[in-house]
Write a structure and sequence with these properties.
This protein is an alpha+beta fold. The strands form 2 sheets. It has a 3-stranded antiparallel beta sheet, covered by helices on one side. It has a two-stranded antiparallel sheet with strand order 4-5. Strand 4 and strand 5 form a beta hairpin. The radius of gyration is 17 Å and the shape is globular.
Amino acid sequence: MLYIGHFSFDELGFDQEARHGYFSCIVDAEKPETALDRFKDHIQHLKNSEPIFGDIVAVYIEDIIEIKDLPKDVILTRFQSSEGQFPKSISSSLPSSDTSEIETYRWADDGMEARGDEEYQEAKPFVQFDE
């Protein structure tokens, strides 16, 4: 079965200021306990091998989603709402993956495009609602 793990973390920034963030992982495993073990092993590997994980001091499981069969219709799998304006943050898709089996895309003015390593760009709305 396919498992998606959603995690949050505590981090120390450049000037030792408190930071926090979120990440997700996906794995094919026989049962939830196996997925948890594999997630834990991978997170420990990332801490030792990936610079973006270097300042993380604690990781928390938000939830694990088990997917028994791939759905035909869209299913909302995660929703989080926070108070206040969107904070300054860093976001990266597939930051430590070298697989060719998964591709990441980003929304551009004229549709979807493969995401590469580019300089910062302000996010453009995919859907805009009237207030």
